[in-house]
Amino acid sequence: MSRGEAFALLLWLLVKPSLCQPEECKDQCNRQMFSFSVTDIPRVLKPSTTEVYFLNSQIETIPKKAFFENPQLEKIEFIESNVASIEPGALEGLVNLKAVEITGNPLATIPAGVFKDLENLQTIVLKNNKLRNLEKGLFQGLKNVIEIRLHGNEIDQIEEGTFDELENLERLHLAKNNISSVSTDLFSKLAKLQTLRLYENQLTSVPEDIFHNLTNLKEVALSGNKLTELSPKLFPHKDKLVKLNLENNLLTTLPPQFFVDFPQLKTLTLQKNNLRTLPPVLFGTLANLSSLSLSENNLSTLPKGLFSPLEKIKKLDLSKNHFVTMSAEYFEGLGGLTELKLENNKIHSLDADVFHELPSLTTLRLAHNDLRTLPGDTFQPLQLKWAAPRITYEATRLEPIGHKITVENMSRGEAFALLLWLLVKPSLCQPEEYKDWFNRYIFSSSVTDIPRVLKPSTTEVYFLNSQIETIPKKAFFENPQLEKIEFIESNVASIEPGALEGLVNLKAVEITGNPLATIPAGVFKDLENLQTIVLKNNKLRNLEKGLFQGLKNVIEIRLHGNEIDQIEEGTFDELENLERLHLAKNNISSVSTDLFSKLAKLQTLRLYENQLTSVPEDIFHNLTNLKEVALSGNKLTELSPKLFPHKDKLVKLNLENNLLTTLPPQFFVDFPQLKTLTLQKNNLRTLPPVLFGTLPKLSSLSLSENNLSTLPKGLFSPLEKIKKLDLSKNHFVTMSAEYFEGLGGLTELKLENNKIHSLDADVFHELPSLTTLRLAHNDLRTLPGDTFQPLQQKWAAPRITYEATRLEPIGHKITVENMSRGEAFALLLWLLVKPSLCQPEECKDQCNRQMFSSSVTDIPRVLKPSTTEVYFLNSQIETIPKKAFFENPQLEKIEFIESNVASIEPGALEGLVNLKAVEITGNPLATIPAGVFKDLENLQTIGLKNNKLRNLEKGLFQGLKNVIEIQLHGNEIDQIEEGTFDELENLERLHLAKNNISSVSTDLFSKLAKLQTLRLYENQLTSVPEDIFLGPVLQQP
């Protein structure tokens, strides 16, 4: 489960609406939120409710007319809520609906027409689900929709015409999938489209006319595909384009004059291609482009004056290519260039005049080349202009100017941890509604030890992103009133025996996302009221017998996302009331017959994505109450005919993505409650004549992505309720009418991606209700003239597209953007945690904060005089300009989280004399200017993690005497200039983990006398200098 989920329940607990100050927070009353305990959608909501949120709920189906009695609703969101299906008409009656979001669910299909008659709908978010295709008609009649997000699904088909009626659509997100082709007309009706994201797919080409009708495009993202060439006429409308991403493709060259006449272009990315040559005239005057990277290509030479039209360019990156020399001709016209990167080439010589055309150059990087000798005056023209030359070299070889560093990869969800602590402190607003607010305590990143004594009223305590490495013995002994304890992303590496001793009232404990490798048996001893144990996404490797001893009342245990490969026999034996056990996403290779035998009340068992090769025949013999079994994503080759002796309650059975070659006869007979059955992505070659019984609640079945080439006659005839059947991606060469006997109610049949070369005339005669037939990507060349005649007579609008010689694909693959789950909460936070004045003595600090989210494109010039903290969450701010906060000198904290910040101008933080903390996290920020923190004498914390930073310049942290922590993890830094950290005399914590650092010098940290924590893990270090720690005295935090 994602880190974002860790905050779902917390949000439910902490951000219930308040009536405190009607003029400030009256909109809070319009929202209702439901979390993990909810299994069904409430029929009737409060009349005042206009927005409803389901966060981490257990709702598997959104039924027809789900909100019919709540026509006042304007927004609906299902976040991480187990939604696997949506019935037609689910949103019927929602005439005021403006926004719908279904994110992070196991949703594989969405019915065409589900948005029918929602004339006020403006935003549709369907990201990070399991969607595989989009049908024409899905967005029918949606004239007012301006944004659709479909990233992070598994879509492999979009029917032609799917987007045609979205006449006002401005933003379409289809990145990060397996899209291999797009048609010329797929987006042709989207005249108002401004943003189109197709990055990180499998595109090998883009049609020349794909953007022909898109006259308003501002952003096109095609990076991370397999494009080998681009048409010279690809962009007929250049006047509004601001951002063009082409990096990380397979481009070997570019068309002449390709980047001419782009007056608004600010961002152009060309790095990480296979560019070998460039045409003499490639660029025009790009007045808004200030930096250009051609790094990580195969360039060995450049045309004379290639960059001369780029008069505004300040930074040019030619690193990681194959240059063996440099010519002054390359740099003609670059009089304003201040930074030039040439490192990691094969340069062995430089002409004496090579840099004479660069009068403004202040930073030159030549590290990791083959330079051994230089003309004596090579750098003379530059040194005359520089107060402090930025070159380091020796007589025999130029030394690297900087050093790679490493950074810790922190999730996006973590970026909200401290924010929650700051924004959602309890208030007294309405005692009868919010009395439980007083019972909670939250500790975040500054906490290194567990407080000995909490307030007597505290029953729940949360440690979010804290620095607590050990939970010691009797950690909460003086707080026996506690009912819930959570450690989320809190660096917990060990738990001492007796850590939870004395917690006689404890009902729930969660330790998630920590480096915890072991947990001692007996740690839960005497916790008789414990009901829920969550130990997910840690580093646990084994479970000992005795770990859960005496826990008679526990009903749920979550252990997924660890590294468990051993479970001692008897570990679960005393959990006599356990209902839900989650062991997915571990390394379990075998389970014994008796491992779960004592769990008589178990309803849900999840073992998916492990290493199981077999399952014992009697493993479920004593589990008479099973409703869900998930065995997908293992290596199972066969199943015992007697595997499920108790079938009467089973609702969900997941068997996909294994190595099954066949199934036992009558294996799916007598499952009266079965709603979900997954068999796709196996190696099924044959099926027995009798496999299914009457499954009255099963409405869809997928056998796609197997090795089937034939089927027994009448195989599906007992499945009278089946509406959708998927046989795609198999090896069928023909289809017989016998396969479909008894499927009178079937409405959708998928046969695409087989090897079908012929169809009998009567093949579909047994399918009177069929309305959708997919035959794309087969080998059909000729058809009997009346093949589809029986169907066409019944269909008002036949759903088949074919030509005389070959059936055309009905749909096309698309791609979707991978946005973190944490982002799903950005706007929600903005809506739910606006400061209130409720009880001044309790929450007066709430008034000091302002938050801006996705609609914000510029930094406000003037904030409220009382504002000391400002947060930009998922905003659209691309540049932090000079003197951005100059008229707000009272600010003490500034944060830009997932906010598209790509550049920071020198002097951006000028005038912030009271600033104590700055964080810029999860942005496409590649550089940060030296001096940006100048004169910020009160600054204590700098967070620059999870950006795209590539180097750190000496002078960046100049004069910062009071800074105690710097977080630089999760960037792409490959150089740190010597002396970068020298003035940080009070620095205690420096985070440089998870990068590609290959070496560090002896003196890099030598001036950090007070350094306690240094993180350099998960890098490429092959050695560490002997004296590197001679200066600082490292301690455990």
UniProtKB/TrEMBL annotation:
Signal sequence segment: 1-20
Key words of the record: Glycoprotein, Leucine-rich repeat, Repeat, Signal
Listed InterPro entries: Leu-rich_rpt, Leu-rich_rpt_4, Leu-rich_rpt_typical-subtyp, LRR_5, LRR_dom_sf, SLRP
PROSITE patterns attached to this UniProt entry: LRR (PS51450)
Pfam family, one: LRR_8
Matching PANTHER family: AGAP008170-PA, NEPHROCAN
Protein name listed in UniProt: Uncharacterized protein
Organism for this UniProt entry: Takifugu flavidus (sansaifugu)
Organism classification: Eukaryota, Metazoa, Chordata, Craniata, Vertebrata
